[in-house]
Amino acid sequence: MTNRPYHHGDLPSALLAQAEQTLRDKGADQLSLRELARAIGVSPAARSRHFKTKQDLLDALAQSGFERLADAVAASQEEEGQTFAQRLDAAARAYVSFAVDNAALLELMFSAKHSPEASPALTAAAHRWWELFLELIAAGQRSGEVRNGPLERIGLPVFAALHGYVSVVISGMLPHNLAEHGLDDVMASILRGCEPR
Description:
Helix content: over 70%
Number of strands: 0
Strand content: under 5%
Distance between the termini: 65 Å
Radius of gyration: 19 Å
Largest sheet: none
């Protein structure tokens, strides 16, 4: 047994990585702080310096997920000179890709952010990726490509359609060979809803 990850300052990251693997393989109910510590070769006391309770660990895992999701959406917007439709499509595909690749984590993220005990850091991380979508819509309004109106009212149907599509894909209700075309159809519908009137 080694304490090297802790002594090198990597224990929180190692615990989160192991927790995410357990979440993916077995579900949140099977996460055990003691088992996580054992799996990465540290004592429960070393682990408790970073995550005192299972809820602390779950919140940190959800926060990390939202940060990674926001980074993926932000990275999708780096190409210059794109139309609103191209930028929204890139953001949507980044969201769908993250969600499909991290289905169990996504479920945890959305349940944790609604908890009354959610930390300010988790709440801020959850809002960051949503703000990226709202800024995209605002930019579309400024360029005349998106109808006028409150950003949240235009953004909600966009998110609802994408999240609904993700839910259908993750549940296995949509055949794999239709997934790409399904997203194209969802995006076409979203863009029609955003058009100036």
